[in-house]
Predict the structure.
Amino acid sequence: MNPRQLATDVLAKLDVNEWCEKVEIAGAGFLNFRVTTPAVASELEAAVRSGQLFFKPSASPRPVVVDFSSPNVAKPMHVGHIRSTILGDSLARVLRLLGHRVITDNHIGDWGTQFGKLIVGWKRELDRAALEKDPIGEMERLYKKINTESETNPATLEEARQELVKLQRGDETNLAIWREMIALSQVQFDTIYRRLGVRFDHTLGESFYNPHLQRIVDELCAKGIARESEGALAVFFEDTPALKEQPALIRKSDGGFNYTTTDLATLEYRLNTWKPEEIVYVTDGRQQLHFQQLFAAFRKWHPNMPIKLAHVWFGSILGEDGKPFKTRSGETVKLADLLDEAEERAFGVVSEKNPDLSEAQRREIARVVGIGAVKYADLLPNRQSDYVFSWDKMLALQGNTAPYLQYAYARIRSIFRKGSEAGTEAKSGASIRLAAPHEIALAKHLLHFGLVLEAVAEDYRPNFLCNYLYELAGLFAGFYENCPVLKAEPAERASRLALIDLTGRVLKQGLELLGIETLEQM
Ligand code: ARG
């Protein structure tokens, strides 16, 4: 059909006078809609009345599992884990706000060959005092020592292998050591999660699935999905071109199970327990092949299961030299040190700008700004590209940063403080009158909030929300420079107070979805 004719027919049946100016046909058959200012104003009034901020809870809420963070026992959480934690937490928050039943699960690495070496080190030369002072540091030292030694000494490697076998067979001594290592690591993880404001519904580590691995391998073999290959067992994907040469190992030739085996058992458990319609895995890009294999193997195992499986992957964090982000002495940066430095630097900036605030106030502002800056820097870039870590950039008060957004919010709050001193407060029944171009632009942008949240949930990309909020803060700044608020005449003042109140609430809600706190005063 001729597109222009189609546009004309559609137009003839359209009744959008309530919201739109006259609809125009343009070009090859486009329809141009222009929302009327009164329609925008009445949407804002509805939001003032209901408190509902321009998004609708999903019409078809679904159970969604989000698997994120997932650090490894006896190792410090490094900046690589920060992206998974921050990104996963933000996605869980957005999905939850949209009405979905979100289940978060921290799939910690608490099983695997590293425990053989760790146990050898622990038995030979554990330094109890060091363990009490810095448990992760001491465990890391033991691991590194035995790992280096086994590179040149086959006897050590064999010893580690035997300790691992003993652990797997349920040897009491080794199990007790292993449990202690998990408990000590969990304390460190929890400290970091508390600082980041992240929580999990479940923390089911890899070891939780051990009792099911043999059964699953047997089932896959019996169904002809897995078969032997050079002494090991593997699932082959002859009919998937990208994976043709990439079978997934599910049992090694020495009888040990693989990462994929555990993940198959995990999938089965989650499906049986929580009945999700969607499972989201947040890890770095180097695990792409693993998840392609996992999903393909699962589809062979359960061909008709209606479940959406998504691997949400991300790139690396680079130093300002463009190489992987390291400390000055060339070691991987530990997450706890990174957060300390963020708060310390923010404290410097706050103290310089607000020397009159008490130390306790400046510390609290520095905490919110510092942690917020790190999170935002991580969420802002397209997650699949690498990004360069820069303290100066992320802590800047100007530019697309958390402090800039937090400052816009604090500024709105300060207008209300001044207003209430002067006896003008936002009234819940205020009628919205939009006339100045800057206020219309700000009001229209507010209406997009819900669309942006849906896009974030659909593509698993919180950066859409970052950019939306940055634009919102910019439009607010333009409005505030051009339109008097407290000095406007009463009806206009009430309308503008309501407009900036909504702006502040969307900013706060938006930042909260990114896991970022706001301050009443900065
Ligand atoms: N522990 C793994 C790592 O540090 C991440 C686990 C991700 N989740 C999963 N179900 N495989 O790389």
